[in-house]
Amino acid sequence: MLKNWLRIAFVNYKRNWLSTIINLFGLTVGLTGFMLILMHWNDEESYERWNPKKNLIYGAQVYNKKDNAYGATIPYIMAERAVKVIPEIKDYVLFNGSGVGYKMTTKKKTVFQKDGMLVSGNFFNFFPFKLIDGSFKDALKAESSLAISTGAAKNLFGKTDVAGESVKFDNKNYVITAVYELPEENSLIKPEFVILPFEQMKNDKDQWGNFNYGCFFMLSKNANVEEVQNKIVKDLFEYRAKINAAGSGVTPQKYLELYGPTGSILTPLDKMKLHAEAYWFGNGDFKTLMILFTLSVLIVILSAINFINLKTAQASQRAKEIGVRKAIGSTKYNLILQFLLETFLICFASYLLSLALTELLLPSFNKFYDKEIMMNDWHIYFYSFVMVLAVTLISGLIPAIYLANFKAIETLKGNFARSKHGIWLRNGILTLQLIISSFFIIGGLIVNNQVKYMMNKDLGYNGKQILLINFSENDAKPWLKYERIKNEMKKIQGVDAVSYGEAVPGSYRFSNSNMDYMDKSIYAQHGSMDYNYLQFMDVKLKKGRWLNPNLASDTMTNVLVNEAFVKKFGWTDDQAIKNEFRPGFDNKPYHIVGIVKDFNLLNPRKAVEPIVFFHYRETEWKRYNVYNIQLKLKADDIGGTLKRIKTYWQNNVEPGYPFDYFFIDKKFAQSFEKYQKQQTLFTILNAMVLMVALLGLFALSSLMIEQKLKDVAIRKTLGAADSTLIFGLTKQFLWITFIAVLISIPISYYLMNEWLKDFAYRIDMPVFPFVLSLTLLLILTFAVVSIKAYQATKVNLVKYLKYE
């Protein structure tokens, strides 16, 4: 019986070779997209899974109800208290810096070692890397302790058994206590060396307001995470409010409302990258990932719809076969199994082809996402095969039941395919396919418009030809280093101006704190800078004046703020110029002397946040955070100027360190990469969807028009013109397309409006994509169907009339 079923299947594949190819092509394309996105998702979910303690380690995040904002940092003293007063919290590890580098000196050589981390002493209790030499016990106990990876050991010593060796950097002598091997698996925590931020932690030990540390807590095995989160709020946040509110004139509850945090979130270590609200090491984009996965599933569904449509349209060719088989005793159950087998063979062939195509496309996909994904995970094969089975059931069961329900007597009498049931089924499924196609066209155009809008938006500053050089060497007094070299660098040929600013577009290296005025408080970013920095960046002054180097008060209490700062306090510009506020980072009032137009620091997706700009000498601790120098280059010889700057820097400023620089406009442009990738992927998916949909439409129209060739021959004999016949054959498909687009418009509007809500600066919902979708699909439908309709008008009249 099975052999007979297979023979019948291949006979039908051959007879309907066009629809067979279209089904194979559509399912292969759909499954390939599904597998690539599935591998991308699986790769994103795999971070930190190597860690044997991952089920006990939770990332700490805070929530501020007033600003509806999440944070990834807590004070050092808060972590200390958590272990003491919350029984379920057994340990903690803090991060104070990542990606740091030093020029390290051994007995034999001096090299620059990058990618280090500043962590607290219990680091290896949380991240038990494979130990190669030394010991993890007390590895980071002393101020002079240094643990390094095998890569760093080879870089410094040329070997890995170096525990006990000495290394000098940052004007200190360190002793290597442990050498470890980093995991090959995905991890955001892969330090080439780790040291204690001893001085920083010493200074922060009693500071409840210094939210400087990323933190992981280790919980007891059976801890109730929700209860621990509540205890953190009560025993840490509310306790902090009581301490800081004492003597301030406000109640602890009011203090908590003003300054927060008001909520606590604990996320498992292996869920942090994709699912954390805020993460020290940077979040993934779970929402975009889910959109891509959903779209890939939609393409598979489109392919399944093609299959259903084509199978039901071919009913006339199978009707007599089914009638004969039923007449000789075949059951409905046997017929359904036979048709499911035929469907499975096509789906399985598509699965094998999609595996080959995925392997072929994977290098380009990895390059696009900067990944190293390999097809070595059994989950990919399992889930994609489950999808094949699902497609087999979805696309095979409907036509199988439809065909198996043919009555033997009716099918042996004539063509059942023209019944209203068959027509309504095909038209309904075709409408669903065109609804999905219309959504992709509308969505693709809106995504494209939004990305273009962001890229062309006036950012409020001019970053062209501005070169930023990061200080690599850790000077004891970095502001003096800046002041020492800025006049020398002005003399370099091709340098037009020099300045320094903390709040740099495209960079996340800035901090924020509360700003208080009477009974109101807001959070604002710090913008410590040189006097000329805002003019240097071509930021526009809205009211007041710039900072003046000739006025002593401009390095003591005078500041500038942006429009968002004024708006957040609810002031007018005139009120702002008259007012003073107290920043959380200082104990004196600051006076506003100027208001600048808002300019975008991160990306146009987010609203401009309040910023206060002040000279780096105005607040004592800020001068220690001077970390860059910025140069505006003349346009005539940028390449030559860059070479001269690099030579001067490596010979006179930081010999032995890498020349760490970027152009501000290019750095900011990186913030668009995610949206440009979304735009590219939407364009590719659009092309795939249209291709699958139009091929399916062509095959379906071909089969349906072939069923009407006798009608065409009769009408042509009676004198009907070719144009009339073509329009008559295509009219039904045009109506289906028109109805499908009308249905898709409110669906597309809602979904794309939800997507646009993520952008603070967004386009108004345009009408053009909806009109274009309707026009384009009508034109494409007419073009595709009319090709077959035109061929139908050239039929051999004798061939189709001789049986009448």
TrEMBL record:
<feature type="transmembrane region" description="Helical">
    <location>
        <begin position="681"/>
        <end position="705"/>
    </location>
</feature>
<feature type="transmembrane region" description="Helical">
    <location>
        <begin position="378"/>
        <end position="403"/>
    </location>
</feature>
<feature type="transmembrane region" description="Helical">
    <location>
        <begin position="733"/>
        <end position="752"/>
    </location>
</feature>
<feature type="domain" description="ABC3 transporter permease C-terminal">
    <location>
        <begin position="294"/>
        <end position="405"/>
    </location>
</feature>
<dbReference type="InterPro" id="IPR025857">
    <property type="entry name" value="MacB_PCD"/>
</dbReference>
<feature type="domain" description="MacB-like periplasmic core">
    <location>
        <begin position="20"/>
        <end position="233"/>
    </location>
</feature>
<dbReference type="Pfam" id="PF02687">
    <property type="entry name" value="FtsX"/>
</dbReference>
<feature type="transmembrane region" description="Helical">
    <location>
        <begin position="424"/>
        <end position="447"/>
    </location>
</feature>
<feature type="transmembrane region" description="Helical">
    <location>
        <begin position="21"/>
        <end position="41"/>
    </location>
</feature>
<protein>
    <submittedName>
        <fullName>Putative ABC transport system permease protein</fullName>
    </submittedName>
</protein>
<feature type="domain" description="ABC3 transporter permease C-terminal">
    <location>
        <begin position="685"/>
        <end position="796"/>
    </location>
</feature>
<dbReference type="InterPro" id="IPR050250">
    <property type="entry name" value="Macrolide_Exporter_MacB"/>
</dbReference>
<keyword id="KW-0812">Transmembrane</keyword>
<dbReference type="Pfam" id="PF12704">
    <property type="entry name" value="MacB_PCD"/>
</dbReference>
<dbReference type="GO" id="GO:0005886">
    <property type="term" value="C:plasma membrane"/>
</dbReference>
<feature type="transmembrane region" description="Helical">
    <location>
        <begin position="289"/>
        <end position="310"/>
    </location>
</feature>
<keyword id="KW-1003">Cell membrane</keyword>
<keyword id="KW-1133">Transmembrane helix</keyword>
<dbReference type="GO" id="GO:0022857">
    <property type="term" value="F:transmembrane transporter activity"/>
</dbReference>
<feature type="domain" description="MacB-like periplasmic core">
    <location>
        <begin position="433"/>
        <end position="635"/>
    </location>
</feature>
<feature type="transmembrane region" description="Helical">
    <location>
        <begin position="335"/>
        <end position="358"/>
    </location>
</feature>
<dbReference type="InterPro" id="IPR003838">
    <property type="entry name" value="ABC3_permease_C"/>
</dbReference>
<keyword id="KW-0472">Membrane</keyword>
<feature type="transmembrane region" description="Helical">
    <location>
        <begin position="767"/>
        <end position="790"/>
    </location>
</feature>
